[in-house]
Amino acid sequence: MTEAHLTPCGALFAVMKKHGGMSYKELASLVLSGKPLTDGRSPASRVSDRTWVSRFIVHAPVGSLQDRYFSDFGVSSLRIVSRLKAREKRALSSEQILGFIVGDGGTMMKQALSAAHQDVALYDNVLARLIGGAGYTNDERVEIAMTLFVAAGCTADVRKAARFAVSYAKSVHGDNLATTPAASLGDADIAPDRERMEHARFALGLVRVVDGYVKGDARWVSPDSSGIEIGALALGEGDIADVGPRVSGRHAHVWCDEGGRWFVEDLGSRNGTVVVSGVDRGKIVVAPPKDEKAELAAEAEVEAELDVVAEGEPEPKDAAGVEREVIEVESGEAIEPVGPDEHIDAELAVSEAVEIHPGDELILAGDTVFALVAGLPEQV
């Protein structure tokens, strides 16, 4: 079987042979389970049978391998990393092992996953978060990365592998998953008026837009579902993980209410969420970046104290000298526009659910853009 036609499990064995010098028999002894199958023999007891290992493990069709064939993926990963580092003639460092997991070996695995109709963007995002955690040592990074690599190879299921690897990283090494800080959103902090539109009941499609070009197909959300999550670690069925590096693991939730209206809410992301109206290109800040949110709250507290001291004095003026009323905003309520040089008051930063419409744009972390389109519920 050529590299172009490898299954994920075949890619796992091929990568370890090419970069780690491991024979199929050696790797099989590290990843196969010692628990007996229905015939009374365990997979691990068959590692000396080259034909069986090749036919029923390495080159087995996607979907035919069951989890019970394999040991715990975390344990297998520790065994593999330990074996690679302990070789007498070809010992590898953590940096070298990580190098082939994210380099040539990773490319081979992703090609196999893509051929198995798996979400490679999710694999990339999870790997980046796992190895980018600020609190991990190099040894821990390679162990965690190997866990994802092994789990993806053995299951041929990116979501299942991602769930296992993230859970393993958090339980064994602590929750240090990385999210890259975003630059200031700038004009994305401006939230002008928008008109509400009444909807018939329809499916909502989210289309990723990169540098003005559509990327991939629309991801459809049924109005009868509980909605979807968008994020680098969004692992649920139908969730969207094709996002940029600044997007949080669980960034936003999109859903439809009983009246057929669609909403988005920020899930406590680090770098914020903005909706751009398809009617007038006005912007509503669903949630500002966390650093800015803290700054806005502090400014609001200071202003409140000054209002108490200066009670009875004229209304505060903005930078242009124009009086401006500070208002309370309910979820999804229209917001008066502010000047481009003004800083949004804390009250103007919507932190609850905001109604969205076909034709709008959803911007996560300042640079991940989704165009919203309508479709028939049957499209989902």
UniProtKB/TrEMBL annotation:
Record-annotated FHA domain positions: 228-275
| Keyword annotations from UniProtKB, A to Z | Phosphoprotein
Q: Which residues form a coiled coil?
A: none
PROSITE patterns assigned to the protein according to its UniProt record, in alphabetical order: FHA_DOMAIN
Which is a Pfam family this sequence falls into?
FHA
Query: What is this protein identified as?
Result: FHA domain-containing protein
Name the species this protein comes from: Slackia equolifaciens
